[in-house]
């Protein structure tokens, strides 16, 4: 039987079954109809996926539920109670809690202090009762099956991102959360950490907590969610029971058309070697060697912490290297700084776009030209006409959606921001592209464009090193995949031998 | 178009427009209440008062754009004032004394840059230390007393006009034009904003952060030197306690003109108008017989109000 969307308006639904009912929610921002009469129903103990491309309205809907935004029209009913005006305070009182992608934890405080921040158990003197604090912390960690994994006394800043995520969940539980929203919780987790997280989410569900799960990784939705609500352009496209749909169907609903899975282009002309790395060693790398030809897209797979980012940064001269050699087009390149790497035609698209890739407060034009200024200035003076033309050319070529070249990059969507980073290296005519998780936080449509762009670069003779934690995307486009583990390159898998088991076992086997 | 000011978007331009309106309103108000305000001699007076503070504010804005700060301004002005006075009293040729003074102040700026970049000392602390050191050296050199006996030509320069505009003010005009051009059309200018927005992204785009840091603090030191020389001309003596609080006036003027202490925002013209607002208030309150102690209260309130208005706009956006 198909899952039937509860009827809208007029017909009564049994409110007792639902944790959240949002009906006819409408929200407009200047120039944007962010939500167009959206209906959203969350049953008690349900894990509901909320999916859609960037800008589809997911975050707006969540922000209305958590009281960060107010809605223009529609009604919100939480546990049978009509809420006239949702505010962050009411939302928290109702037990609605969001665990965000960039976590809001106090990095210098301990696990226990973070979990009980503002709710510390105190003794009669009004002083924090440390023993009680640690005992209660252990209790709540046990509830999510995490008590053996992390000490209540550990300082949060020293924990892994995955562990911090668990702390955030524990924190929500302590605050009496019974509706938890997960916004891209797995973006930076390894496969094993994702499994742990899913175990926790399932146990939360089994204890009656309702969950809203937002992710760009659709495979996860099939693993963890009961139902998926698809949004597009602020409207509900439809809802599917996960057991009765497929990734293809969901993607088609999200994008409104069929999406290609494989972007592999077999007929690229492999040219000469553009990059060779020999025995590069640093405190995080233990003798890495690789070779990259023009026209080749080589993937680098590995768990978080395997040294992939460090390898890219070492090649680019961003971090200190103890020993090893880098050859560019057969010549030894003594790369001591990013600027000498850039001069030799290397471009780095860093993993953390907002903190490393872009000067967010600067315009599209200045960001695109940022690495190009030495080439377009004379005596320190910039050729303003060239600067403008270059920016205009790449905004057009990469169809970067921006109202003007003077637009501040901060105001662009994730996908368009990433295209600005890529445009920066296209502008310098780089021949070696080091792309570190270039599709992170980018929607399906923009992902496709990035893959196409990688193919285009390879076709024009550039070499691409493509670092990703997401196996399907590597397998969908690479000529070969290198696997890294603990600072070493442990496997080199040609396209004919691609399979997930092989990659994963190379990445984790002892 | 291309200029850095476009980085700020509409709301920013509006804030600066508001500042302009504040200036106009102040001028109209003061002019209506004081016949003397719009006379040539008072306007020239305003220009003279603006010159030194304006130059310091322009130097400060460049540093603030990189998300830095320099608190040594007032002390370096005093150091140059004393050193220059002593050299002149000993009969050194004026040009040589001026060049040596500039070398000293520029070196102080470079040292600030080195301490900040290579030793990783936060700019606030590094320049706080330099502020104390420079003031201490000034007092040591002068023994704490004023230096008299400077050539008359020095004082004449401060009161001279060129094309009807005070000579001192020409220095400000030239400084504003050069620095504004530097910020808008040179590689160094772009890198300054980029570093202020995100130093790591700038570094990974090939920007040499060391050079930019040295550059902005050295440029600052040079301009503090220029300020010190003009100060000497105005005072016609060496005063070891001069320049107290100049750094705060410079920061206030820069911020009034749209600079953000978080970096990547601000420009030289803004700093110029920020200075104009402050000097108008000082000048006007004297003419209107307002207790001079109120001047500081009013300026402080305007600084806070401008930034508050700006923040509210940003939030609403």
Give a summary of the structure in a few sentences.
The complex is a heterodimer of chains A (510) and B (317). In chain A, 33% of the residues lie in helices and 25% in strands. With 510 residues, chain A is of the alpha/beta class.
Task: Characterize the structure shown.
- The complex is a heterodimer of chains A (510) and B (317).
- With 510 residues, chain A is α/β, with parallel strands linked by helices.
- Chain A has helices at residues 58-65, 88-93, 111-115, 130-143, 161-174, 191-206, 218-224, 247-255, 308-315, 338-343, 353-357, 364-369, 373-376, 384-397, 414-427, 444-459, 471-477, 500-508, and strands spanning 18-29, 32-43, 47-51, 73-78, 81-83, 96-99, 179-183, 210-214, 227-232, 235-241, 273-281, 286-293, 297-301, 323-328, 331-333, 346-349, 377-378, 381-382, 432-436, 463-467, 480-485, 488-494.
- In chain A, strand 1 and strand 2 form a beta hairpin.
- Chain A is globular.
- With 317 residues, chain B is mostly helical.
- Helices cover 76% and strands 1% of the residues of chain B.
- Chain B contains 13 helices and two strands.
- Chain B has helices at residues 9-33, 40-65, 73-89, 94-118, 123-142, 152-159, 167-185, 187-197, 199-204, 209-235, 246-256, 268-287, 292-316; strands at 161-162, 165-166.
- A two-stranded antiparallel sheet of chain B has the order 1-2.
- In chain B, a hairpin with a 2-residue loop joins strand 1 (161-162) and strand 2.
- In chain B, helix 1 (9-33) packs antiparallel against helix 13 (292-316).
- Chain B starts with 8 loop residues before the first helix and ends with a helix.
- The model of chain B is unreliable at 1-11 (pLDDT under 50).
- At the A-B interface, helix 10, helix 11, helix 12, strand 18 and helix 14 of A face helix 8 and helix 9 of B.
């Amino acid at each position: 039987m198909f899952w039937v969307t509860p009827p809208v308006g007029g017909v009564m639904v049994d409110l007792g079954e639902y944790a959240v009912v949002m009906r006819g929610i409408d929200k407009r921002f200047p120039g944007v109809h962010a939500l167009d009469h959206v209906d959203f129903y969350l049953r008690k103990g349900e894990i509901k996926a909320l999916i859609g491309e960037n800008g589809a309205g997911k975050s707006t809907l969540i922000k209305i539920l958590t009281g960060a935004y107010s809605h223009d029209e529609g009604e919100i009913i939480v546990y049978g109670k009509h809420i006239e005006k949702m505010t962050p305070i009411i939302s928290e009182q109702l037990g609605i809690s969001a665990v965000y992608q960039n976590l809001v934890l106090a990095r210098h405080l301990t696990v226990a202090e973070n979990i009980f921040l503002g709710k510390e158990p105190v003794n009669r003197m009004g002083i924090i009762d440390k023993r009680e604090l640690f005992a209660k912390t252990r209790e709540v960690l046990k509830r999510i099956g995490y008590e053996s994994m992390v000490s209540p006394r550990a300082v949060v800043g020293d924990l892994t991102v995955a562990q911090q995520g668990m702390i955030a969940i524990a924190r929500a539980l302590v605050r009496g959360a019974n509706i938890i929203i997960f916004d891209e919780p797995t973006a930076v987790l390894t496969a094993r950490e994702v499994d742990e997280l899913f175990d926790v989410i399932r146990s939360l569900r089994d204890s009656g907590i309702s969950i809203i799960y937002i992710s760009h990784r659709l495979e996860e939705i099939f693993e963890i969610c009961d139902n998926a609500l698809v949004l597009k352009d602020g409207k509900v496209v439809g809802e599917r029971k996960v057991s009765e749909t497929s990734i293809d169907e969901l993607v088609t609903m999200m994008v409104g058309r069929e999406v290609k899975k494989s972007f592999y282009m077999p007929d690229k002309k492999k040219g000469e070697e553009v990059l060779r790395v020999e025995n590069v060693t640093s405190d995080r790398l233990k003798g890495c060697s690789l070779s990259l030809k023009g026209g080749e897209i080589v993937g680098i797979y590995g768990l978080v912490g395997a040294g992939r980012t460090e390898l890219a940064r070492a090649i680019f001269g961003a971090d200190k290297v103890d020993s090893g050699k880098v050859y560019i087009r057969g010549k030894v390149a003594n790369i001591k700084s990013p600027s000498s790497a850039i001069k030799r035609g290397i471009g780095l698209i860093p993993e953390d776009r907002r903190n490393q890739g872009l000067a967010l407060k600067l315009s599209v034009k200045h960001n695109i030209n940022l690495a190009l200024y030495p080439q377009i200035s004379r005596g320190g003076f910039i050729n303003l006409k060239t600067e403008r033309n270059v920016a205009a050319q790449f905004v057009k070529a990469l169809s970067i959606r921006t109202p003007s070249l003077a637009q501040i990059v901060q105001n662009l969507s994730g996908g368009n921001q990433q295209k600005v980073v890529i445009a920066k290296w296209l502008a310098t005519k780089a021949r070696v592209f080091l792309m570190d998780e270039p599709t992170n936080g980018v929607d399906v449509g923009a992902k496709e464009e990035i893959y196409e762009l990688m193919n285009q670069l390879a076709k024009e003779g550039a070499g691409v090193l493509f670092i990703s934690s997401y196996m399907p995307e590597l397998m969908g486009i690479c000529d070969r995949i290198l696997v890294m583990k603990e600072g070493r390159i442990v496997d080199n898998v040609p396209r004919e031998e691609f399979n997930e088991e092989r990659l994963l076992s190379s990445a984790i086997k002892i | 178009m291309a200029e850095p000011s476009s980085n700020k978007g509409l709301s920013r331009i509006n804030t600066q427009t508001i500042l302009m309106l504040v200036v106009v309103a102040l001028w109209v108000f003061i002019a209506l209440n004081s016949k003397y305000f719009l006379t040539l001699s008072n306007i020239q007076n305003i220009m003279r008062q603006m010159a030194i503070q304006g130059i310091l504010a322009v130097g400060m804005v460049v540093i603030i754009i990189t998300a830095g700060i320099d608190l040594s301004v007032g002390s370096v002005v005093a150091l140059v004032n004393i050193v220059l006075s002593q050299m002149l009293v000993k009969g050194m040729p004026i040009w040589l004394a001026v060049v040596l003074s500039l070398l000293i102040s520029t070196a102080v700026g470079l040292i600030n840059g080195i301490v900040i970049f290579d030793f990783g000392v936060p700019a606030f602390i590094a320049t706080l230390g330099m502020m104390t050191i420079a003031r201490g050296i000034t007092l040591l050199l002068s023994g704490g007393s004023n230096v008299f006996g400077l050539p008359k030509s020095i004082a004449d320069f401060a009161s001279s006009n060129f094309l009807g505009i005070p000579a001192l003010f020409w220095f400000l005009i030239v400084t504003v034009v050069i620095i504004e051009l530097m910020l808008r059309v040179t590689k160094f200018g772009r890198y300054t904003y980029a570093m202020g927005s995100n130093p790591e992204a700038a570094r990974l785009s090939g920007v040499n952060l060391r050079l930019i840091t040295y550059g902005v603090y050295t440029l600052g030191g040079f301009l503090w030197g220029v300020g010190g020389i003009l100060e000497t001309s105005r005072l016609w003596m060496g005063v070891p306690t001069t320049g107290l609080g100049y750094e705060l006036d410079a920061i206030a003027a820069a911020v009034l003109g749209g600079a953000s202490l978080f970096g990547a925002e601000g420009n030289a013209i803004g700093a110029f108008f920020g200075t104009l607002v402050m000097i108008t208030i000082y000048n006007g309150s004297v003419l209107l017989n307002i207790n001079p102690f109120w001047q500081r209260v009013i300026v402080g309130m305007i600084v806070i109000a401008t930034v508050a208005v700006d923040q509210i706009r940003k939030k609403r956006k």
